Automatic annotation (TrEMBL):
Protein name: Tetratricopeptide repeat protein
Lineage: Bacteria, Pseudomonadati, Thermodesulfobacteriota, Desulfuromonadia, Geobacterales
InterPro entries linked to this entry: TPR-like_helical_dom_sf, TPR_rpt
Pfam family, one: TPR_16
Regions annotated as coiled coil: none
Naturally occurring in which organism (per UniProt): Geomonas anaerohicana
Length: 695
């Protein structure tokens, strides 16, 4: 049932009595009132049909979804026959018929479809009952949210349902200073007022320490202290202890509740929270009677609605909220009431209709009113978009809220929502190949990437985006932050290894070496270990520490080892050659020259060093072959170097004519190697002349 009551200001207490009856006798409280169905309007939509029923006054109704039809029963009402609506040309509805029996108006709506649902839609006018009927509003067993948003729902639904927002009411009022001075010495009266100041500033625990000092005083001061202790304990959620002190205070000085009626508010809360609903309701009505005709009457009606809703009288509570919305429009109380009315749809509406609820929350937020209500409305707008909107729109909304209220009451749950919504945004951005967008996404949300790291390929994909975007320095900074986070622990070895690469690329040798050694100590068995050691070997080679380079790169000579950085075999080969380990140098440089690309700047020297190592091992034939291949890719003076070495090797093989030809060609190129070749050629000619071998 739904009740919506007209409560004009001058007769407010009469309205409260009516509400009390409605709560106590929900089936008959309003049956005495005359009501009339004035108009029926039918509006077809995609997937459902909306039926607006306009009554003379807010209806007291029961709605039933029966097999093949929807039936609405309105107590204390009648209607015209509406014969023209008995047969409708509508995809969802087969007509609308009305009948009246014993003061109950029955509106029957036969259905053309078998899987139709029905939903009541709140209207600004409480006298209009709006029904949406059709398959489009049939509620599934689960909440109809956007795909992939289940973690957001599971993380927020219970919190939102259990969130105990301030229902409003009478504000805190300190004890009259004249009363205190009449009961306590001046110093003690000031101390009592300090306790009340603490209570006003929500420092309830400190206030308890102050008020406890007065429990051994005379009857009246002790009673005041008991009332304030009850109020402080109620704020801390210690409801049973609070009730005990309230009762103790009332027993000592019952008349004081008439002097300070605002104490009835926390007193009624304590009664309600400890299960005594009738007494709590009676006490709250007693308080409301004191504030008839004041700005607090609507606030207290909200509070009563909150009280009875928590005790199972949901429809009566909704009626009170509607009354506050209609008859206290523009007030903070109306904003709170509109929030309550909107909340009933929060986890029930279908995906294609969330914008309607979004508009309701938006209206609460945009109107001047209670800051807490506006904050709550903005949070629920953000939540709606997180559950239903596109990932990018949802993320923008969450980020906006987080920036606006970084330490608000909803900040913790907003941060969790941001973590969850980042994941589908990341998936969309990566799938679109938007590397720059992915880089920016990671940089802007680095504190909220925990959910994204649940994807094992996330760190690698983001690193590729940084590399393609040329943002090496930014990657180094971001990964330095991320590798310290527990939630990125599974990707920490990759992150640290990439930091080593980035530091090397940027020429930051101290950072590269420090990071690499940190990796070795933290992840001694990680698959990225080889790459990190290769970087250390490179750094050692570049600063001239050839033994250090050989030590770091020695693992490449092991069975099954393969260099991740092509130049690593070159560095190792050069280091081994310098150490006179010609066999190791040949093996390493052979691997390098086989795997290197033709445009590798180290390739010519790799072939030359390989030829030199082979020659040192007296393998002149292979050395000559290496020289000839190296010479084919060399240019400029390096070509002269290969021709000179080729001549030497040819001479070792007894190929004198070929050696003379190689040196002759080298001499023609000029340069240092040309001069050496010319000298070698002259020496060869002189020796051959002496030996009588010249032609």
């Amino acid at each position: 049932m739904t009740f919506t009551l007209r409560i004009p200001g001058p007769g407010f207490f009469l309205g409260l009595v009516t509400i009390l009856l409605a709560c106590a006798l929900p089936h008959s409280a309003l049956a005495q009132q005359d009501n009339r169905l004035l108009r029926i309007a039918v509006y077809p939509h995609q997937g459902f049909t909306r039926v607006n029923l306009s009554f003379q006054s807010p209806p007291d109704y029961t709605l039933r979804a029966l097999p093949g039809r929807v039936r609405l029963e309105v107590r204390g009402a009648d209607s015209p026959s509406f014969k023209k609506l008995r047969s409708l040309n509508d995809k969802q509805l087969a007509g609308v018929t009305t009948s009246e029996l014993r003061g109950v108006l029955s509106v029957s709506i036969p259905l053309r479809v078998a899987d139709a649902g029905v939903q009541v839609v709140d209207c600004a006018n409480p006298s209009v009952l709006s029904l949406d009927i059709g398959p489009g509003v049939k509620r599934a067993a689960r909440v109809d949210i956007a795909p992939g948003r289940a973690p957001i729902l599971s993380g927020t639904e219970r919190f939102v349902r259990d969130f105990d927002a301030d229902p409003g009411g009478v504000p805190f009022a300190p004890t009259d200073g004249k009363v205190l001075k009449g009961l306590l010495p001046e110093g003690e009266a000031l101390l009592f007022q300090q306790g009340e100041s603490l209570l006003y500033r929500d420092r309830a625990e400190e206030a308890i320490n102050v008020f406890s000092m007065f429990t051994n005083k005379a009857t009246a001061p002790k009673a005041l202290a008991c009332y304030r202790l009850g109020e402080a304990l109620e704020r801390l959620g210690r409801h049973q202890d609070a009730l005990s002190y309230f009762r103790q205070g009332e027993g000592l000085w019952p008349q004081y509740l008439e002097q300070a009626p605002e104490l009835l508010q926390p007193y009624s809360d304590a009664l309600a929270r400890t299960g005594n609903f009738p007494a709590a309701r009676a006490m709250l009505l007693r308080l409301m009677n004191r504030y008839v005709g004041t700005p607090y009457q609507a606030e207290l009606l909200n509070r009563l609605a909150d009280l009875i809703e928590r005790n199972g009288h949901k429809e009566a509570a909704l009626a009170m909220y509607r009354s506050v919305v209609v008859y206290s429009a523009g007030s903070p109380a109306a904003g709170r009431a509109r929030l309550k009315l909107a909340d009933r749809e929060l986890f029930t509406l279908s995906r294609d209709r969330y914008r309607e609820l979004l508009a309701k929350y938006q209206a609460v937020y945009q109107e001047p009113g209670d800051p807490a209500s506006r904050d709550e409305a903005l949070f629920k707008m953000t939540l709606l978009l997180s559950l239903y909107a596109s990932p990018k729109e949802a993320l923008e909304t969450v980020v906006t809220y987080d920036r606006r209220y970084p330490r608000g009451i909803f900040s913790t749950i907003i941060k969790k929502m941001r973590e969850e919504i980042l994941f589908p945004v990341y998936q969309e951005t990566a799938a679109a190949g938007n590397d720059q967008g992915l880089v920016q996404l990671a940089l802007d949300n680095r504190e909220y990437l925990a959910r994204c790291f649940g994807d094992p390929g996330f760190a690698e994909r983001v690193s590729q985006a940084f590399e393609k975007s040329g943002a090496t320095a930014k990657e180094l900074e971001l990964f330095g932050y991320l590798q310290q986070k527990n939630w990125a622990g599974g990707s920490a070895p990759f992150l640290v290894a990439r930091m080593v690469d980035d530091a090397v690329a940027l020429g930051n040798v101290p950072l590269a070496e420090a990071t690499a050694r940190d990796f070795l100590s933290r992840f001694p068995r990680d698959p990225h270990l080889g790459r990190v050691r290769e970087q250390l070997g490179r750094l050692a080679f570049e600063r001239g520490d050839l033994p250090g380079a050989a030590a770091q790169l020695a693992f490449l000579g092991g069975k099954g080892a393969k260099a991740q950085l092509p130049e690593s075999e070159y560095y190792l080969g050069k280091a081994l050659a310098a150490a006179k380990d010609h066999g190791g140098a040949v093996r390493s440089l052979s691997r390098f020259t086989t795997a290197a690309k033709r445009d590798d700047p180290f390739l010519p020297d790799g072939y030359f060093t390989l030829a030199t190592a082979l020659a040192a091992g007296k393998d002149y034939q292979r050395a000559l072959a290496a020289c000839q291949v190296g010479g084919s890719i060399a240019s400029g003076e390096v070509s002269g170097q290969f021709l000179y070495k080729t001549g030497e090797l040819q001479l070792q093989l007894g190929e004198v004519r070929q050696a003379r030809a190689s040196w002759d060609k080298a001499a023609g190129l000029g340069g240092a190697w040309g001069r050496l070749a010319s000298e070698a050629l002259n020496d060869l000619n002189w020796r051959m002349k002496i030996a009588g071998q010249l032609p």
